[in-house]
Amino acid sequence: MDEYTVNELYKVKTSPNAHKIFKILDDRKSDYRHSFKKYTKSVQDYIVKNRQPDHERKTRIDVWKLLRKTIEPFFGDGSYLAMGGSTLTNLATKGADLDLCFAIRCEDGSYTEEGVNNFVLSKIHRILEQKPFITGLRHICARVPIVTVELAFPYMDVKVDINFSLMIIHFLQCGVYPPILPNLFKMFPKHFDGTGNVEDLDYAMELDLPKIPKNERTIGELIYGFFDYYTRFNYDEWGISIKDGKIFDRNILPDTEREYMFFIEEAYDGMTVPKNLKRQSNLMEIVGEFKQARLSILKDICENYPPPIDETEDYRDEFEEENNKILKRNNEINNLADNW
C-alpha cells in the first residue's frame, strides 16, 4: 500500500519531515539493539509503575460530576463541562491534573470560544468561590484564559485545569509514517464535526477504521521523534491544521493570525491554540528545550555515545541565521586579508 493510499484512508497528509527524523536511529539499530530494547522497557516500566490507580481515576470522575452539578445550572441548556485529557483516555499517571473544558452551545448549534472565554470563566470563578469544597481558585486572564481549582477533602489531591493541547495528536498523524492516529474529524463527521451535542458524544464507541500498515516504531523511538520533529519544524512558514490532518502554508492566514509564533489550529474554531506565544525569544526557548530533550534521549538510547545529529535543518531564529551569515562572511574576509 503506497503512501498516498494510506494517507487517503486515514485522511491525513504526511509531513515532509516525517521520513527524516528516524534516520539517525535506523542507521544504528544494529549497533545499539540492546540499548534500544532497554530504553523502551524503561519507558514501559515507568508507565506501569506510575499509571493512575483506579481509585484515583474514580475520584477525578467524581470531581467532574460535582463541578458539572455546580456550574451547569447557571448557564442553562446547551452548556456542558466536558472532561478531557488523560483522565478521559485512562492514560493518566499518578497525580495528573484533571482537564476540563466548558462548552456553551451557540444558537446555530456550534461551539465557540471567541469573545466569551474570560466572561464565562469569570462567572465560573464567582460560582465556585462560595463553595465550601473549594480551597484554592485562580482565574488566569492570559490569551488562553484558564481556571485552576484546588479542592477540600476528600478531593484535595485533585487539581483541575480547564484547557487542552494538540501537538502529540498532530505528530502521531503527520509526523510519523505510517500514521498512528486517524483524522476522526474527516473520517466520521457525523460524530466529530462539532455540530452535535458534546454531552451526547460516546467516548466508548467502536469505529470501523480502515486497515493500513502498522507503524512498528517503539515507544522510545516515538519519544525521540516527537522532540526531533518539533526541533526541525518550520514555525515561520508552516501551520498545523488538526481538522485537515496536515501542515499548511502560513501565508494563507489573515494578518491577525500571523503574529503568533506557532499556529496550531483548534479543530472547531479555527484559531491557534498557543495564543500567548507571540515573542520569537519565547519560541526559541521552547525549541531549545526540544533540542536538549532530543539529545538526552539519544544519549539514553545509544548508551551515552550518541552519534552526531545533523542540525542543519533545525529551526533557527531568522536574526540568528542572518548574524551567523555575517559572522561567516567576516571570517572569510579576515582569512583573505591574512593570506594577502
Automatic annotation (TrEMBL):
GO MF term (any one): poly(A) RNA polymerase activity
Give the GO terms filed under biological process for this record: RNA 3'-end processing
List the GO terms this entry assigns under cellular component, sorted alphabetically: cytoplasm
Q: Which residues form the PAP-associated domain?
A: 219-269
**Which cofactors go with this protein?**
Mn(2+); Mg(2+)
InterPro entries in UniProt: MTPAP-like_central, NT_sf, PAP_assoc
Would the keyword Iron be found if you checked this record's keyword annotation? no
Describe the family membership recorded for this protein in Swiss-Prot or TrEMBL: Belongs to the DNA polymerase type-B-like family. GLD2 subfamily.
Q: In its UniProt entry, what is this protein called?
A: PAP-associated domain-containing protein
